[in-house]
Amino acid sequence: MADGFPKDMRGADWDEVFARQAKRADLVPEWLDAIALHAGERVLEVGCGPGFVTLMLAERVGPTGLVHAVDPSADALANLARRQAERGFDNICRIVADATTLADDLQADAALATMVLHHVDDPAALLANIAHLLRPGARLLVAEFDPDGPCEFGPPREMRIAAAEVKRWLEAAGFSGVEERRQTAEDYVVIGGVPM
């Protein structure tokens, strides 16, 4: 734990985490456009937590699509289940798992790992495993807090990961066309595709 920031999220107040996720709502449409997510597709969300973004994904892919929402916390996914039921979404498959070792054959059309790498012990292994869960041509978007940002919210500077490092990990995992985009003073996205 750095300066009181919980790396592993044990004991998190998931309603509070959901409220923090909701503060980034204006960033999410750009994320979904960057991975070219459409109705009827299957999308993987790694480290979904209580699921603010998950619900937006479910709305985007619609009733003929499917969201695979993966998180190591059963409590976070129980929070998501409640919100999912309130909204009547039946196109979300909640998976309690460490996505670094998840061996499912999801073959998703797209994936997101947003604001999660700084919580992971081996981010490079996580990204490499995500590559195995995607079909050829799928795109992955990683959003993270920039160590050069003002650090007015989010993790402390020492927990943040530089975009250049994320790009190296994606390329090492076999992603192609890897590109970085700045979103705000605090964060960036890195996008890569699974070769056809």
How many helical stretches?
A: 6
Order of strands in the sheet with most strands: 3-2-1-4-5-7-6
Task: State the low-pLDDT regions, or none.
Answer: none
Helicity, in percent?
Answer: 25-40%
Number of domains: 1
Taken in chain order, the helices and strands follow as HHEHEHEEHEHEE
Q: Tell me about the biggest sheet? A: 7 strands, mixed
CATH fold group: Rossmann fold
Strand content: 25-35%
**CATH C-level category:** Alpha Beta
Termini gap: 40 Å
- Label the CATH architecture: 3-Layer(aba) Sandwich
Give the radius of gyration: 15 Å
Which class do the helix and strand fractions yield? alpha/beta
**What global shape is seen?**
globular
Chain-averaged pLDDT: 92
The CATH superfamily bears the name: Vaccinia Virus protein VP39
Give me the count of strands: 7
Please describe what this structure looks like.
With 196 residues, the chain is of the alpha/beta class. The chain has one domain: 3-Layer(aba) Sandwich (Rossmann fold). The chain contains 6 helices and 7 strands, in the order H-H-E-H-E-H-E-E-H-E-H-E-E. The chain has helices at 14-22, 28-34, 52-61, 74-87, 123-132, 163-172; strands at 42-46, 66-71, 92-96, 108-114, 134-145, 176-182, 187-193. It has a 7-stranded mixed sheet with strand order 3-2-1-4-5-7-6, sandwiched between helices. Strand 1, helix 3 (52-61) and strand 2 form a beta-alpha-beta unit. 43% of the residues are buried. The model has no long low-confidence stretch (mean pLDDT 92).
